[in-house]
Amino acid sequence: MEGMKGMLRGFDWRRLLLAVGIVGSVWFVSSEDAFRADAALSDFSFDYYSDYAEIYYYYGTDTEIVIPETARELPVTAIGYRAFMRMDISKVTFHERLKTIGDEAFSTNRLTEIEIPASVSYIGKFAFWRNALEKVTLHEGLQTIDALAFATNAISEIEIPASVSSLGMNAFRENGLTKLKLNEGQLEEIGYGSFSDNSITEVEIPKTVKSIAHAAFRDNALNNVILNEGLETIWDSAFENNALTAIVIPSTVDLIRGYAFYNNDLAYAVIPPSVTTIESNAFGSNRSNFTIIGSTGSPAHDYAIEFDIPFIDAATIPLPDIRFAPDGQDWAQSASTTVSGDVFGIFNLEYIWTNTDVEPAPEAESRSFESGDEIEQSSEGEWFLHVRGSLLDRAATWHSGRFRVDNTPPTLNVEMTTGSSAVPYTQDTWSAEPVTLHATASDSFGEIREIVVETEYNSQSSAAAYPGSTYSATFAANGTYQLKISAIDQAGNVSAAEQRIVKINITPPPYEKSGNARLKELIVSAGELAPLFSGDVTAYTLHIGSDVQSITVDMLPEHTLASTSLGGQALGSGRVKADISLEEEANLFEIVVTAENGTKRTYKILLERDEAELPPSESECSKPSAFTDIAGHWGETSIIKASCRGIVQGYSDSSFGPDRRVSRAEFTVMLAGLFQWEGAETALLFGDMAGKNHWAMQAIAPAAAFGIVSGYPDGNFRPEATITRAEMAVMIAKALELPMDADSPTAFADHAEISDWAKGAVASIHQLGIVIGRGDNRFEPDGAATRAEATVMLLRIAEIKKK
To answer: What one-character DSSP code corresponds to residue 244?
Structure first.
């Protein structure tokens, strides 16, 4: 009876009725109420049940169809046996109320792509057999894929949902499958020939699968198969005719049937002691050097001996050397590392990410991986990658360094206030006071790297990044500011941009002219001002030598718009200079500074000249200079004068060496010649001079006795070392018994560079005019003096001694 019913269903009644002229509005009444004339359903015949309708047959001629959702107000939840078989259908659209697709429902059509709704739980035998399917999408909810349901198509990739619990015989046989993903869930058995005669290259068997049936993956291109713990039986020819080079059998397997791995390219198989039965030819027709790795005395060992297969005891194989590249990572939007190591292929490797470097429990869910795999982590937090390598009953664990993942954009808070009272400012409104913007960023995981501010003002655009989590700026110039502010965290996540408009219109106060008529600087090219210059002091004395004919005065007012005049001659504003020729009778000149508002301040400088010295008497210097190298030198006169007085001496070759640097011994001799110290003990305690007949001994000994000179911390005097200007100043100050207060100001630009032990001496001899500064009013304490310069200073000291 059922066979007759099938024949009737397979007959094209619709075409017959059209051929004999029966109009479409008339329907054939049967026990199943087929041939409805309703316009939307006229192409379909239904079987009706108490709570659903099933499509019984399709009478239409359209090749692109949409499965109706209801018929007679009942949901259409089933497509019956052969309902659309051989209808030349090229496209079908299913609805979300459909539950079952019956046997041969769409077999032998032209379908190229289908999507099975999540509501469908059952796909029958031969349901889509012999179509042209290239793409099939299956959703969670599907439970059964029956025999040959998708056989003989052109599907290249398929993903089996975790909800599938039954995979029928030859379900996907003879497709072009190259990729297969079996999601872990309900599946316990991979059916007979389910994926045979395809081109699949790799597959991982879910942990729930206990049995791989006969020929399940026969005739594929498999080069990698991962079998997980939980598998119990591998049936005959399950992986026959593939390209496997290695296989690791889980410790839960107890039976491997004949021809299970026949005709592959296996170099080795790892077989645990749990396998009690290995049938003949289970590993036949593989590499000539095919090797079994197992435990000595196990059934696998016996099998290897029986069939003359090389055997290696797993206990003799070293553990892999696991490496992570990179081995840790600071904050980023995702993490990834490549895991590598030696002897990789033999060991079963699994990984698991955790938030600590503590080894996870053995039962923690992990995933398998292979040599050189890149393992990724996109969830936020701090992560450590743990790897477990096992070979039969041996296992070891490793873990990576810390990886930090943050893919959540930071949050940004922007506040604006006006004036010093910090009153909240409403953006895009005019403010008569400066507006201050405060931006604060925070992040749920990492730190804030920077705050980026884009500004448009006066048609000019700019952008700047400010390190850290806060940014503040005050806008005081009149105009409109358009601001775009965003925060970037250490992982590179960017916050939502905050846009603000600031408008400033501040009325400036009336301009008040400056009354500042003070000088900031007053510098003369010769002589010494007394007291030291200060803008508040208006009366000075300038002590100059009798031979000075002119000086240059350099003046700088404190206020840029103040002007200066000297001796009634206007010099202008800003820094000015004036050259003054010194007449015999001139003894006072005035500097007048006029402020912007007309206020005046007068600085007076009184000149004080040295009396001109009479030339040495004939008795003092009856012969011309005996020095051969001073003619025309700037210090010639001073050198001759000092030589006549016995203050300085030349060298044995009749030279004076005016530009030679003065040594410590030479300057001591010069001072001794000037001061003529007498009555001191001559014994020397300097380590580098004691017991020696040094040429300067007669000068250094009394100078040391009177405390004029001292040695270095190492106890040496270093007589031939070049003397510094600071050391000269101290010796002169001691010889003249001048105050040496370290807190005394020196008035030199490089005052801070003068050592404390010399500052008082420098200040004292500077005030007496013994020493003057070099360029830019610098003393240069560590600089050297020439013999000519030392001679001039000694003559000045001689003049002071007279007073």
So the answer is: -
Does the global pTM surpass 0.90? no
Amino acid 309 reads I
Structure confidence by residue, pLDDT tens digits, 668-727? 888 888 888 775 555 566 888 876 788 888 888 888 888 888 888 888 888 888 999 989
Which residue from 600, 603, 644 is spatially nearest to 621, judged by alpha carbons? 644
Between 1.10.8.100, 3.80.10.10, 2.40.50.140, 3.30.230.70, what CATH number should domain 173-313 receive?
Answer: 3.80.10.10
Dihedral of CA 282/284/285/286: which sign? positive
Q: What is the pLDDT of residues 397-455, one digit of tens each?
A: 999 999 999 999 999 999 999 987 778 988 888 988 899 999 999 998 878 999 999 99
Residues of the chain with pLDDT under 70: 1-40, 343-345, 583-587, 610-625, 679-685, 691, 774-776, 803
DSSP assignment letter at 537? -
CATH class of segment(s) 323-357+364-405: mainly beta
Contact between 271 and 292 under an 8 Å Cβ cutoff? The reply is: yes
Question: Hey, which residues does 112 pair with through a beta bridge?
Answer: none
Q: CATH 3.80.10.10 region(s) of the chain?
A: 1-18+32-155, 173-313
One of 2.60.40.10, 1.20.1560.10, 3.40.50.720, 2.40.128.20 is the CATH number of 411-504, namely 2.60.40.10
Q: State whether the Cα torsion 688-692-696-697 is positive or negative.
A: positive
Assess if CATH 2.60.40 describes domain 519-609: yes
CATH assignment of 1-18+32-155, among 3.30.70.1060, 3.80.10.10, 3.40.50.2300, 3.40.50.970: 3.80.10.10
List, in order, residues 6 or more apart from 705 with CB less than 8 Å away.
Answer: 677, 680, 681, 682
Q: Residues, the chain, total?
A: 803
Cis peptide before 424 (omega within 30 of 0): no
**Looking at the DSSP assignment, which residues form a beta bridge with residue 233?**
211, 255
Binning the chain into helix, strand and coil, the percentages to the nearest 5 are 15, 30, 55
485 CA to centre of own chain: 21
Buried b (16+ CB within 10 A) or exposed e, 344-366: bebbbbbbbbbeeeeebeeeeeb
Q: What is the 3-state secondary structure (H, E, C) of 694-730?
A: CCCHHHHHHHHHCCCCCCCCCCCCCCCCECEHHHHHH
Instruction: Considering the chain, tell me which residue range(s) the CATH 2.60.40.10 domain(s) occupy.
Output: 411-504
